[in-house]
Design goal:
Elements: H1 20-38, H2 45-52, H3 56-62, H4 66-80, H5 82-85, H6 93-110, H7 112-121, H8 129-151, H9 160-177, H10 183-203
Helix pairs in contact: 1-2, 1-4, 1-7, 4-8, 6-9, 6-10, 8-9
Length: 220
């Protein structure tokens, strides 16, 4: 009596095929990671294809060039600026500033790879023009919010461009320092950080006359 042959197997099951939209997003995410690691000029279309385990030709089916990939990465990041623009201005100024800084810091944390790419490519302005433009848009948006608060009489007139750079620096620095925290730890740290920074921005740290701070609301 001969031994029965083992049942045939079909080999490893292949994963579910990505839809066109999913594949496009996968390529964007991988491109961003590689750009942040190696720089825009240091990354080739073949590098992106290799990381995605696809052919170069497939990438060109979705994007006409590496520059087009970067432009779409920047475009997606631009949409996330809405987090800052959505801050409710019809509340006490302390709450506005807290929500603004919280939204900005959260946006940075959610896009740390893009922030790393910004840092890397700012050394070569010509190659990073789309990124430089995005950074400038963020600062203009922040300055515009401060201008609105001045018009409402919520804060004193001041250099809003400088204030925008201050808020951006605080958010970038906080997110970078605390990048390894889990979600719960991040929430606790942010809850402590933002009110403190708002107090410093609005009222300063010197004892006595808080109105000496250039952003403090006019005293009535």
């Amino acid at each position: 009596m001969t031994e029965a042959a083992p049942p045939a197997t079909s080999g490893p099951r292949r994963g579910r095929r990505l839809t066109g939209a999913q594949r496009r997003q996968q390529l964007l995410d991988l491109a961003l990671e590689l750009f942040a690691e190696h720089g825009f000029d240091g990354t080739t279309v073949r590098d992106i294809a290799t990381a995605a385990k696809v052919t170069d030709g497939l990438i060109y089916r979705y994007f006409e060039s590496k520059e087009a990939l970067l432009a779409e990465v920047v475009g997606q990041a631009r949409e996330r600026i809405q987090l800052v623009r959505a801050v409710n201005l019809d509340q006490p100024v302390e709450h506005i500033m807290r929500d603004l800084l919280t939204a900005f810091a959260q946006g940075v944390r959610d896009n740390l790879t893009l922030v790393e790419l910004l840092r890397l490519e700012f050394r070569r302005p010509a190659a990073a023009r789309p990124l430089a433009n995005l950074h400038e848009e963020v600062l203009v948006t922040l300055a515009g919010l401060f201008d609105s608060l001045i018009e409402r009489g919520a804060i004193a007139p001041h250099d809003t461009a400088c204030a925008a750079r201050l808020v951006a620096a605080l958010a970038y620095g906080f997110a970078a320092i605390h990048r390894n925290l889990d979600d719960d730890q991040w929430a606790v740290a942010l809850e402590q950080f933002c009110p403190f920074c708002v107090g410093v921005i609005l009222y300063g740290t010197a004892s006595g006359d808080a109105s000496a701070c250039p952003i403090a609301a006019p005293q009535t």
